[in-house]
Amino acid sequence: MKAIIPKNIEEYCxxxxxxxxxxxxxxxxxTNKHCDYPQMLIGPFEGALLAxxxxxxxxxxxxxxxxxxxxxxxxxxEALPKSGRxxxxxxxxxxxxxxxxxxxxxxxxxxxxxxxxxxxxxxTQLPRATKFDFVFIDADKENYVNYYxxxxxxxxxxxxxxxxxVLWSGHVxxxxxxxxxxxxxxxxxxxxxxxxxxxxxxxxxxxxxIRKR
Length: 213
Ligand SMILES: C[S@@+](CC[C@H](N)C(=O)[O-])C[C@H]1O[C@@H](n2cnc3c(N)ncnc32)[C@H](O)[C@@H]1O
Hints:
binds S-adenosylmethionine, 7 strands
């Protein structure tokens, strides 16, 4: 992932944002040491943003698509009230096992339910009445439009979808491959959708905040 914001500026922003839990540092170190593609983890800056958004929106029911080793799920769970719940989807059993082991070690981890398998199937299998206040989309880019369409009917009016990697290292400006084009397609899809309002932020790899009208 190519940095969009100069590294020293991002570090300055991070330094002036509230500190995260110690276990999150440990999870980041563990992921860097033991997992492929550790850069997929959102990290402390975007983690702080997600936690702030969860608190500001007063979300109680969160859906995450793309758990990896559980970093973003823990950031959001920490910001939920005691009775809040977070459902997270992950296709890779090894990553899911790591995530669950860290959820067990954090008092907010009990708010999290990890669904193992392809996210689209997991979402379809949720009871019809299950609704969310907040959705974080951070999995395979080729399915972003599918995830968006699957979750929008389950999002309450005024609810928020946060989509990660919407700038895709800047490749959205000159898409070359299938994944670049999938991100461009998603951004256009959201931009043209009258059911929502959206603001795209140049945070880390690009984050879109999409509010259902
Ligand atoms: C970018 S990582 C998520 C990072 C995580 N949100 C964090 O910040 O710690 C994307 C994750 O989505 C998972 N994934 C990819 N395709 C998926 C699918 N079809 N269903 C569920 N999970 C999927 C990958 O295995 C990977 O762990």
